[in-house]
Amino acid sequence: MAIITAKAVEKTHKSGVHALKGVNLELDAGQRLSLLGPNGAGKSTLVRILTGLSRRDGGVLEVNGLDPSSHPRSLQEQIGVVLQEDCLDPLSTPKSLLFFQCQLFGMGKGQARHRAQERLHDFGLQAHQEKKVGHLSGGLRRRLHCALALLHAPTILFLDEPSVGLDPESRQDLWTSLDQVLQSMGTALILTTHSMEEAQHSTQDVVLLVDGQVGYKGSIQSFLQGAQGLEQRYLDWMNEWKECNT
């Protein structure tokens, strides 16, 4: 069952840049999809529209049965979003941030304390729960961002470049936790990343955006066409696309 249906979605920025040109997209419950493409392809614009942070100019869009433009607040109570920007309060602790966020979702104090401890455990943050956020490493802060986004068991998680700046061990720890939590909740995933290794490891399907258009959508396995790695196949595909569109 589709939980995201986008048909002919259009967006032109005030600068005149035509960012999205008739984008069609579907995401099923529990599906894991990578949104790939070069800088300026429209990935961030599309995610902002899907999450209700920006309005589209045309087309039809439903996320969890809601139009993000008409019901952004209701939608944001049902989804989780982890942006690349780090906006955590450096003077707060992971425990206090998670507890406060639980209360914002309407949980009572007892439930909020229990849920906060669950996420601290899920993301390996229990030993750091009383530390100031400003004293945490980049990897721990990234885990905390994900824990906050998954507090309310959202139907969809939007992840924007989750492992940028992380060392290999921290990246592995983050994805080990994410894989377990997403699977236990049945939460769908839309991942935007420039790491082909991350996309191939963490998702099964891919949408390639180029110049505001969907150039390819389908399974990663089908896209590979026998190639060993996603990065080389992606580069070959981009060269083929440029040759056909110049």
Give a summary of the structure in a few sentences.
This protein has 246 residues and is α/β, with parallel strands linked by helices.
Structure explained in plain terms:
- This protein has a single domain, classed as 3-Layer(aba) Sandwich (Rossmann fold), CATH 3.40.50.300.
- Helices cover 39% and strands 24% of the residues.
- The protein is globular, with a radius of gyration of 18 Å.
- The protein contains nine helices and nine strands.
- The protein starts with a strand and ends with a helix.
- Strands 5-6-7-3-8-9 form a six-stranded mixed β-sheet, with helices on both faces. Strands 2-1-4 form a three-stranded antiparallel β-sheet, with helices on one face.
- The chain has 246 residues and is α/β, with parallel strands linked by helices.
